[in-house]
Amino acid sequence: MPLTDSLRDDILAAVPSLRAFAISLSGNGDRADDLVQETLLRALANIDSFQPGSNLPAWLFTILRNLFRSDYRKRRREVEDADGSYAKTLKSQPGQNAHLEFEEFRVALDKLPQDQREALILVGASGFSYEDAAAICGCAVGTIKSRVNRARSKLSALLYVDGAEDFGPDNTVRAVIGGNG
Fold first, then answer.
1. What is the maximal distance between C-alpha atoms in the chain?
2. Measuring CA to CA, which residue among 94, 89, 93, 43 is closest to residue 64?
3. What fold is seen in the domain 93-164?
4. Which residues make Cβ contacts (< 8 Å) with residue 156, sequence separation at least 6?
5. Cα 10 to Cα 27: distance, rounded to the nearest angstrom
6. Where is the RNA polymerase sigma factor 70 region 4 type domain (predicted)?
7. Running DSSP on this structure, what letter comes out for residue 123?
């Protein structure tokens, strides 16, 4: 399939969601940008394998996820500041409550198993249906539903939340925990 203007525009429209997903996987904005760039390069190089009429964002998310996993396997032998403890010593933490609450959320999200975090981000934050998330992850719809449910429960427990209404005016956390699935 040739790259049409319409297809190019659809790919570009998916970039913000791809970046958000890449950040949730890598935990690093620079690394996320590299993942998105590599995803776009691979997508364009393999545009002939895209089936017209199928879900373009799901196809792109699958490419990104596979790139992340391949890269993760390569990088796990490298020594890094994985928990960010050294990096945290290089900057002062802001005093805003919203930032601190979001940091608590990010830490709790990082404690979830990779498969649960991935499913929760796809369904809760990125807005994919359970079916699309299952296609991206290469598993059954019931598996995705189970992962999302377990992730929401564990995240609520980690954050000592009785319900999504416990979160402040920032609906980011509510969107991920409460989701649309």
1. 51
2. 43
3. Arc Repressor Mutant, subunit A (1.10.10)
4. 162, 177
5. 26
6. 103-155
7. I
Cα separation, 163 vs 181, whole angstroms: 16
Write down the pLDDT at residue 76.
66
Please answer whether residues 28 and 89 qualify as being in contact, where contact means their C-beta atoms are separated by less than 8 angstroms: no
How far is the C-alpha of 9 from the C-alpha of 5, rounded, in Å?
6
Provide the residue type at 25 as one letter. Answer: L
Residue found under tokens 């970039």: 15
Eight-state DSSP code of residue 93: P
- The full set of domain ranges for the chain reads 1-81, 93-164
- Give the residue carrying structure tokens 């776009």: 40
Strands (E), 91-140: none
Assess contact for 11 and 63: CB atoms under 8 A: no
Question: In angstroms, what CA-CA distances link 91 with 84, 94, 104?
Answer: 11, 9, 17
Q: What is the pLDDT of residues 107-165, one digit of tens each?
A: 889 999 999 999 999 998 888 999 999 999 999 999 999 999 999 999 888 887 754 44
Contacts of 158 (CB under 8 A, 6+ apart): 108, 111
